[in-house]
Amino acid sequence: MMLAKVIGTVVATVKYPTLEARKLLLIQPVTKDGVPRGRPLVAVDAVGAGVTETVYWCRGKEAALAFDTEVPTDASIVGIVDQITTAELPAVRPATKPTGGRR
Backbone phi, then psi, for 17, in 5-degree steps? Predict the structure, then answer.
């Protein structure tokens, strides 16, 4: 799953039958810090997200699995993010090599 910000809605006057009554949203992929990355894309909403919310989304075959019926999509919103918390990890020192001394 990846993070994105919902930046708009998409209106389609004609849809594939299994997309009827499904909301299409325009999302901008972002980093964990909220910095945009990549290009915006259209995703089918599976959770009731709205504009300005940060969401989890997935793509590929897994995107279609978010729905009970077969939905032709390669990007789906599967969660709404309430909060992102990150922690500073301690620096990891590189492993030392054995000296190769004689026994």
Answer: -50, -40
Contacts of 63 (CB under 8 A, 6+ apart): 43, 44, 57, 73, 74, 75, 76
Each of the 103 residues of the chain gets a pLDDT tens digit; together they read 899 999 999 999 999 999 998 999 999 999 988 999 999 999 999 999 999 999 999 998 889 888 888 889 999 999 999 998 888 778 777 777 666 666 5
What is the CATH number for 16? 2.40.50.220
| C-beta of residue 21 within 8 angstroms of C-beta of residue 9 | no
Give me the residue label for tokens 């909301």.
23
Q: What DSSP character marks residue 98? A: P
Is residue 100 in a domain?
no
